[in-house]
Amino acid sequence: MDTISYKLETFEGPLDLLVSLVEKNKLNIEDIPIDILCAQYMDYMDRAAEANVELACDFLYMASELMLIKSRMLLPRDPEKDEDPRKPLVDAIIEYQKTKLAAAELADLYARFGSRMAKETDDISPDRTFVRDQSTELLMQALSRVLKEADLSEKTLHKDFDVIVNAPRIPVQDVIRDLVRDLKSGEVYLDTYFRSSANRQEVIAKFISILELLKSHTVAVEETEDSETGVTDVATHLKIILLKEDFEVTDEELESY
Questions:
Q1: Distances from the Cα of 221 to the Cαs of 73, 151, 191, 217, 228, in angstroms?
Q2: What is the DSSP letter of 138?
């Protein structure tokens, strides 16, 4: 005859065993029949001992607690004054049930998010010197819209473009050299600087020169307000200042513009 083998469930602790017995026998947690619970617990202890399962001391301690509660339930007591001997056990079982539910939810969250890592936000200060590249496509669209709104004829366009094409070429390097020389010798106001131009080509060359010097942090445009009115006058309160006092306009420097 084959030897009969018993397979016992393993529990993490005595409370885990008690919760399993309560759920298995569908016992009322608020009014636990301590004799049934104690009998079921001791039955598990006996079967574990027969299977040579080493029981921890906390299982043995809980068995003694159940026997103590069972004996106290047999003694007469005043329901209004004396505390129910089962209350500490009931509170412990309820708390353990909540812990198991929370552990199951946390285990699910860990399975979903355990391999993820959160990166702290980098403290990056804005770069105020950055100048965004302009799109030539947008410039062409703007020019087409302006020409359409102005309703210019093709003949007029050719005439205007001939003036631009045949206009005298003004090197930006020469304008930069003259501007730096003027800044070292005295103050240069923005409005006066442009109005002193001989033609439109010179105005464009001066404008490009200022942009190049601003981009290289060689000059800056300073704004001052009228202390009495608080209004900025373009002619007298917008001036170009030289940031690098020792800046020398060399041929090597001008080649970069």
A1: 93, 37, 12, 11, 22
A2: H
The predicted model gives 183-193 an average pLDDT of 81
26 sits in the region (left: phi over 0; alpha: psi -120 to 50; else beta) called left
Q: Return d(Cα 231, Cα 224) in angstroms, integer.
A: 9
With 0-12 / 13-18 / 19 or more C-beta atoms within 10 angstroms meaning exposed / middle / buried, residue 16 is: middle
Q: Which residues in 58-97 are b (16+ Cβ under 10 Å) and which e?
A: ebeebbebbeebbeeeeeeeeeeeeebbbeebbebbeebb
The neighbouring-strand residues paired with 240 are: 188, 221
First to last CA, the chain: 103
Looking at the predicted structure, is the pLDDT value of residue 219 above 80? yes
Rounded to an integer, the average pLDDT of 67-96 is 83
Q: Is 41 in contact with 63 (CB distance < 8 Å)? A: yes
How many helices (H) and strands (E) the chain has is answered by 11, 3
Q: What is the 3-state secondary structure (H, E, C) of 1-15?
A: CCCCCCCCCCCCCHH
**Element of type H or E holding 242:** strand 238-242
- 204-218 pLDDT, tens digit each: 888 888 888 888 888
pLDDT given for residue 151 in this prediction: 64
Taking the C-alpha atoms of residue 10 and residue 122, their distance in angstroms, rounded to an integer, is: 49
CA atoms of 38 and 20, how far apart (whole Å):
13
Which domains does the chain show, CATH number per domain? 14-109 (no CATH), 160-255 (1.10.10)
- Tally of CB atoms within 10 A around 146: 10
Distance between CA 32 and CA 89 in Å, rounded?
A: 10
